[in-house]
Amino acid sequence: MLNVCFSPRYFAQTHTNSMEKLIAVAEQLQQVNDYKFHEPELIDSGILKALHSPKYVDAFLTGQPKKLATFSGFKPWNEQLRDAVLCIHAGQLLATELAFQHGISANIAQGFHHASYEYGGSFCTFNGLALIAQNYPNKRIFVLDCDQHGGDGTAEFTRRLDNLYNFSIYGLAFGYPTYERAESRHVHTKHGGFAQYNMALHEAFQRASEWQADIIIYQAGMDCHQADPYGSAWFSTELIQKREEIVFNLAKKSGIPIMFVLAGGYQNLEDLVKLHVQTFQTAYDVYYNKKDEKK
Prior knowledge:
8 strands, 8-stranded parallel sheet, Arginase, Chain A
């Protein structure tokens, strides 16, 4: 079975519906027997203070000062939101450990790659991608970010963490910087195409192999889908599924463990959940469906 991290605590009532999809995806996956669920506890605040500015972490933990506590965009601050974020980040570390043990795992989570050292941003409270590098200092952590927006916060963390490499493939740059271990490939939302995207995916895995990555953290974003308000006109449902097949087949072939998360997606919830669930189904088929392998 595919090991998946999730807790009902992942949900919090906010002015957006971005956390609703986490519950909906989990409910869909729990209807079949292909997934083994693991429920994380709350992450220790000291771990977050080693990653982010302690002043910012304290503000989020207490709700004061209000402006800093809600800097990521979630308003109003409340204890349910605090605990949801703490639980999601504990899930990041648990899922990473499971990936090292089993070769693949997932965390039903989102909202990481725009958070920088001093504060969060764009509904990313803490950087749960850099968090993995912080907590595995002797492992090389390679982030393959396929969210439609460039992972600017993670790129900045590569300057603080020598064992972190960020490779973003995006349609909307979001101020993405380029550093020694922060690369990007821009695929235009209207004039790009899947051939270019496919080439970028293969370049990412080549870089991960050359860098001798110990694990790949995959941001399986769905905001690039053509029905998303931020999406690329050419990126159909069929091509999204093709992307997932390529990623998981390349990961399995490389022998590098992979842990994946949901990342962005803002279209109709029912349709969005179907896209995210397909990622899990594809991962399961590539790694565990023996009948599929014989075809």
